[in-house]
Amino acid sequence: MCFGPCPLVAIRRLVLRSQRIVGAVQLIRDSLRKKGQLEILPTHGPFLMPAVRLHGETNFPRFIRLILITAMKLGKSGKIFSVSPSPKNKEKIMPFSDLREYVEKLDKEGELARVRKEVDPKFELGAICKTAHEKGRKALLFEKVRGNEMPVATELLGTFKRIAIALDTDETDLFSEVVERTKVSVEPTVISDGPCKEVIVKGKDVDLNRLPWITWNNTEKAPYLTAGLVIVKDPEYGRNLGVYRMMYAGRNQTFLRLSPGHHGYEYYKNAEFRKEKKLDVAVVIGTDPSIFLASQFVPGIDVDEFTIAGALRRKPVELVRCETVDIEVPATAEIVLEGQVGIPAEIGDEGPYGEFCGYSVGTVVRERLWTIQCVTMRKNPLYHGFYLCKGINEEGVLKSVTASVQIYNELRPGHPAIKRVYCSEAGIGIFHCYIQIDERLKRPGMVNNILAASVGVKGSRVKHVFVFDDDIDITSPEEVEWAIATRVQADKDIFIIPNTFGLRLDPSATSEGVTAKMFVDATKSKDFRSEGLALPPEEIWQQVRKNWDSYFVA
Fold first, then answer.
1. Which of 105, 365, 469, 529 has CA 20 to 30 A from 3's CA?
2. Neighbouring residues of 443: CB distance < 8 A, sequence distance ≥ 6
């Protein structure tokens, strides 16, 4: 029989609190594995804990069997799993203080490819990023960008493994680690000075042409700043971080896309309602990766994403005050742009741009501009770029983590049957959501309640939600498709809500962002007809696995 991971939190905590029990379980684990009586079943991603399968009969007491089944997960290190920080993480509370340390770590881990040849920032750099997706998906460090002295780093958080490295955890523990860390918030602290002020340029000396402006894809008519963390403040709601695209507009101006549905837009409209003449803006380029990851969460409008970053890194983010605007920025940032967007704003023609959906949605739009009046930076700064394209891209991977965690954290308290949530990176991280439930806790009508509740998650842009039994690995496209093919009847298991608010950047939605939601119950119904799975007898199957190599020896 195959058992899933960790339904008994109390037992898990017992294991964590007693080193003697942990040691005993480790001995039992090793003994069972040597005898071929214990198997750890792998998964296809970081969002499922490997299941534990016991073979045959053992003489161990029932409580030991329960501990093995419900309180253990063996990752690559072979350690007993816990949702609490591992001893390694407790010893090193904050993995990286800045972007440079993280890039150095990626280099040591073999996750970074250095592009040593000079590249053209117009299309060639983007083409290299796209090709890298096809050849191993490593992070890239462009050492020589034509017309600029700054190196450019891209794809820094483009895989689950690299996000795990950024958080100093194992890839197999990524989901549970982020779930646990984001249960608390850690307020930032303000310090007097930081490396981001090693170079200060103000007023007429500001020249954005010193930055490596990149034209990423073929539909773009102008270069874009893509990985800028936009920071704005509001007297009622506080501080907000978001990543908004910025098209080059001149020596001291860029476009700033503040769209309805995003908190930055709401802050701007609030300032407009208060009859203010401008909104202060700071844009950070290149920062500690936990801060960039935190910016991809969509919490309440009054939640400061720096508190999420502090929780992820388990230490307060250190901020410094800007030179010319009333905003605080990370002290170790590589580059900071300071300025204002007017109310009413100066408007110009912006676009098109290759967005996260993999399409260039719309052509030219009328968009706000903002004026930069001060630039601060570190000496020899490292520029962070964000490449978006068709297929799995960096934003899809980031959103896969943040959306999965956010939906799980919001739904799980009211729906304890939920075991896992996975928003697939191929589904842009936000459009496709797979939910796994404990089949033993399933009750009539429960799946529909879960599907309906998924619509109300804060900031959710999910279009298609699927619920599966816990015998399906929701991170495996093969198992997901098999379950939909064999367990779904369209007239009974699929329902649709038309005319809901979505994203204007979704090319299948209306120009106002109106979309439909589809919900699919892919669990086994009460009328499901089966005498069991078509599999070999368990004992014979295990014998074959154990002796696999011998079948191919003459």
1. 529
2. none
Q: Are 324 and 251 in contact, with CB atoms under 8 Å apart?
A: no
State both tokens at 8: 């008994």
Domain ranges of the chain: 2-82, 99-384, 394-521
Tokens 């052509």 locate to 363
SS3 content of the chain, % helix, strand, coil (to 5): 30, 25, 45
Query: Cα–Cα distance between 443 and 493 in angstroms, integer?
Result: 15
- For residues 339 and 247, what is the distance between their CA atoms, to the nearest angstrom? 15
Mean pLDDT score, 266-286 = 95
Q: How far apart are CA 390 and CA 368, in angstroms?
A: 27
Q: Give domain 394-521's CATH number out of 3.65.10.10, 3.40.1670.10, 3.90.550.10, 1.10.3430.10.
A: 3.40.1670.10
Is CATH 2.30.110.10 correct for 99-384? Answer: yes
* pTM greater than the 0.85 cutoff: no
The pLDDT score that the predictor gives to residue 15 is 41
Q: Judge residue 386's burial from the number of C-beta atoms within 10 Å of its C-beta, 0-12 exposed, 13-18 middle, 19 or more buried.
A: buried
Position of tokens 């496209």? 477
The answer, yes or no, to whether residue 9 has pLDDT greater than 50, is: no
Q: Are 38 and 8 in contact (CB under 8 A)?
A: no
Q: How far is CA 491 from CA 162, 418, 467, 469, 518, in A?
A: 42, 25, 16, 20, 13
Backbone φ/ψ region at 74: left (φ over 0), alpha (ψ -120 to 50), beta: beta
Are 305 and 240 a contacting pair, CB within 8 Å? Answer: yes
User: Can you point out the beta strands (E) in 194-315?
Assistant: 199-202, 224-225, 228-234, 238-243, 246-250, 253-255, 278-285
What's the pLDDT score for residue 326? 97
> Is residue 268 packed enough to be buried (19+ CB in 10 Å), middle (13-18) or exposed (0-12)?
buried
Distance from C-alpha of 423 to C-alpha of 164, rounded to nearest angstrom? 17
Nearest to 227 by CA among 293, 178, 149: 293
Mean pLDDT of 380-407: 89
Tell me which residue of 15, 80, 26, 29 sits closest to 58, measured CA to CA: 29
Q: Show the beta-strand stretches assigned E in 251-324.
A: 253-255, 278-285, 318-321
User: 99-384 with 394-521: one CATH topology?
Assistant: no
